[in-house]
TrEMBL record, chain A:
Residues 41-88 form the SERTA domain. Residues 1-44, 131-157 are annotated as: Disordered. This is SERTA domain containing 1. It comes from the Eukaryota. GO terms for cellular component: nucleus. Residues 26-40 have a biased composition (Low complexity).
TrEMBL record, chain B:
This is Serine/threonine-protein phosphatase 2A 55 kDa regulatory subunit B. It comes from the Eukaryota. InterPro entries: PP2A_PR55, PP2A_PR55_CS, WD40/YVTN_repeat-like_dom_sf, WD40_repeat_dom_sf, WD40_rpt. SUPFAM superfamilies: WD40 repeat-like. GO terms for cellular component: protein phosphatase type 2A complex. GO terms for molecular function: protein phosphatase regulator activity. PROSITE patterns: PR55_1, PR55_2. It comes from Sarcophilus harrisii. The keyword Transcription does not apply.
């Protein structure tokens, strides 16, 4: 693309000229340490729980969820639920959840196993990433909280009840490495683009038709 | 990438109303090249803008070292993944420059799924005096051609040409968060939430998977990769950070698949600060090796930390960016600000570190003197060539004039992307859709 560099309008870069040597340290002062002011009262665990459920629900509704956001919210949910489970006698405030439209079941049993809730959604049965088998003896997670199966995250008993659509797959397995060239030989996942051409926008119509036929079942693999 | 792009169209695309921010114009990454002569920005609309530093001239001293637009191009377009029925955003997540090896400049730009290698070249001459074509390229009437001439190269106005030379597609199932060029100048890596791939710059149809933390059962997923970078000198070493606040240094010589780290850098949780949000605020949003290669800099929600590669148990330095937010974590969780990913940067001599914060503030910490400062990037508070005034956030008690109270901070104005010139005291700050470049004129050499 030929273009002449022209300075952007309304987006002038600003250069600042300091007077002193340590320009970035002028009148430097350490950030004030937090005073002992009255912080707003933290939300009770049940409200935080509802908020987290709402976030999870909202995050899953997105086309392609932000995995980091999802993982952090789920881990926070586990912490909250563990804490709520450890204090069964703590009075649950009757105030309605500020953000969640879902019913609260604070005393739901924690016995529902993870596998029914965080179901690994494999679109094709037998889908697995065998070539990158994760070595079990080098876990990345920190040691789990006591009382739980080692290596398994804490079960989220109330999730199934609280999430409206039953939660088909919390962490969708969107790995499509199985769909590489082998299965559909006429679909090149790496289109043989030349180095000077920009890659096409996607599959062309005939390839798309073939793919649809396979999915519908009129074609056998 | 047509060669006849209309210059007027390019200019018009940058005109915008002051009163609102077009989402496409939000800057999503900023990167100096290895000499600092060029500065690239990427935005949510998939565009890349390259700025070039004007050479210093004695005739116009006030324009010394100013950065002006050098080139603009559309790097990525929105795409549609037919298999998953999902749109792939064109937002540029990262730009990394390749070391310059000839007259051309090259950079890698990436969105969530596809990395592209762009070559930036200059043309300042054009051939004139063709025998069969006239100046506009039209064929001449042959009867008017009476003699043979040799075309000559004549100078012309500088034209900057950008062309895509490689497209590295289909390597990632999850969203790419980092790319890093190896010191061998032949390979680079790209990291998504669960995997890291190694590519050769000349080969687009295959890559090697070097890290895979995807569990066999997705229901066991508790941790994702948040950032990664190659060591600046040792081409076999790289680091990646996780959402649980750990750093893993890996050696590619040890094995093909670097799932087993060589070193694990992790700081135990402070029991006095433990809360429901401990994990979220410990999630590392950026990791950068120092220029010397001896240290690593990490950014989590409230702090920046310096790690010595020889000490895995804890960071050697921790700096509070905005500790006054510690008591507000609940609200920040509610409005999702707690998930914001701030970047961090070293200066050229590794003596000062910088990172962004809210209210268009950014912070700098001098590692030697232990002094720090808060500055603001905004049109209202800075006039061109004025001196930046340090800012202060007060949390109650004595409040000085011009202090900002914590409750007045604007959390929509966040400085997520910052960059420091590799050799001089020049910094680039991205504040939403605006780019600020600050320069130390008096003392431009590193100390």
């Amino acid at each position: 693309m030929l273009c002449k560099g022209v300075k952007r309008k309304r987006e002038e870069e600003e250069e600042q000229e300091p007077a002193s040597q340590d320009w970035w340290l002028e009148e430097a002062s350490s950030s004030p340490s937090p005073q002992a002011e009255a912080s707003p009262a933290p939300l009770p665990p049940s409200s935080l729980f509802n908020l987290s459920i709402f976030k999870l629900h909202h995050g899953l509704r997105r086309g392609e969820p932000d995995l980091r956001h999802l993982v952090l919210v789920v881990n926070t949910l586990r912490r909250i639920q563990s804490s709520m489970a450890l204090e069964p006698s703590a009075p649950e405030p009757p105030s309605p959840a500020p953000v969640s439209p879902l019913p609260v079941v604070p005393d739901a049993p924690m016995c529902t196993s993870v596998s029914t809730l965080l179901d690994d959604l494999s679109h094709i049965e037998g889908l697995s990433d065998t070539q990158t088998a994760f070595p079990e003896d080098a876990p990345l997670s920190r040691p789990p909280e006591p009382g739980l199966d080692p290596g398994r995250p804490a079960p989220l008993g109330s999730l199934e009840i609280l999430l409206e659509d039953g939660l088909e797959g919390l962490f969708d397995d969107i790995d499509t490495s199985m769909y590489d060239c082998e299965l559909w030989p006429n679909l090149k996942t790496d289109s043989g683009e030349t180095e000077d051409k920009t890659q096409g926008p996607g599959l062309d119509v005939s390839e798309l038709d073939y793919l649809m036929d396979v999915l519908v079942g009129t074609q056998t693999l | 990438m047509g060669e006849d792009a209309d210059a007027r169209k390019i200019n018009h695309s940058f005109l915008r109303d002051h009163s609102y921010v077009t989402e496409a114009d939000i800057i999503s990454t900023v990167e100096f090249n290895h000499t600092g002569e060029l500065l690239a920005t990427g935005d949510k609309g998939g565009r890349v803008v390259i700025f070039q530093r004007e050479p210093e001239s004695k005739n116009e001293p006030h324009t010394q070292g100013e950065y002006n637009v050098y080139s603009t191009f559309q790097s990525h377009e929105p795409e549609f993944d037919y298999l998953k029925s999902l749109e792939i955003e064109e937002k540029i997540n990262k730009i990394k420059w390749l070391p310059q090896q000839n007259a051309a400049h090259s950079l890698l730009s990436t969105n969530d799924k596809t990395i592209k290698l762009w070559k930036v070249t200059e043309r300042d001459k054009r051939p004139e005096g063709y025998n069969l074509k006239d100046e506009e390229g039209k064929l001449k009437d042959l009867s008017t051609v009476t003699s043979l001439q040799v075309p000559v190269l004549k100078p012309m106005d500088l034209m900057v040409e950008v062309s895509p030379r490689r497209i590295f597609a289909n390597g990632h199932t999850y969203h790419i968060n980092s790319i890093s060029v190896n010191s061998d100048c032949e390979t680079y890596m790209s990291a998504d939430d669960l995997r890291i791939n190694l590519w050769h710059l000349a080969i687009t149809d295959r890559s090697f998977n070097i890290v895979d933390i995807k569990p066999a059962n997705m229901e066991d997923l508790t941790e994702v990769i948040t950032a990664s970078e190659f060591h600046p000198h040792h081409c076999n070493l790289f680091v990646y950070s996780s959402s649980k606040g750990s750093l893993r240094l890996c050696d590619m010589r040890a094995s093909a698949l670097c799932d087993k780290h060589s070193k694990l850098f992790e700081e135990p949780e402070d029991p006095s600060n433990r809360s429901f949000f401990s994990e979220i605020i410990s999630s590392v949003s950026d990791v950068k090796f120092s220029h010397s290669g001896r240290f690593m800099l990490t950014r989590d929600y409230l702090t920046v930390k310096v790690w010595d590669l020889n000490m895995e148990t804890k960071p050697i330095e921790t700096y509070q960016v905005h500790d006054y937010l510690r008591s507000k974590l609940c609200s920040l969780y509610e409005n999702d600000c707690i998930f914001d990913k701030f970047e961090c940067a070293w200066n050229g001599s590794d003596s000062v570190i910088m990172t962004g914060a809210y209210n268009n503030f950014f912070r700098m910490f001098d590692r030697n003197t232990k002094r720090d400062v808060t500055l603001e990037a905004s049109r209202e508070s800075s006039k061109p060539r004025a001196i930046l005034k340090p800012r202060r956030v007060c949390v109650g008690g004595k409040r000085r004039k011009d202090d900002i109270s914590v409750d007045s901070l604007d959390f929509t104005k966040k400085i997520l992307h910052t960059a420091w010139h590799p050799a001089e005291n020049i910094i680039a700050i991205a504040a939403t859709n605006n780019l600020y470049i600050f320069q130390d004129k008096v003392n431009s050499e590193m100390h």
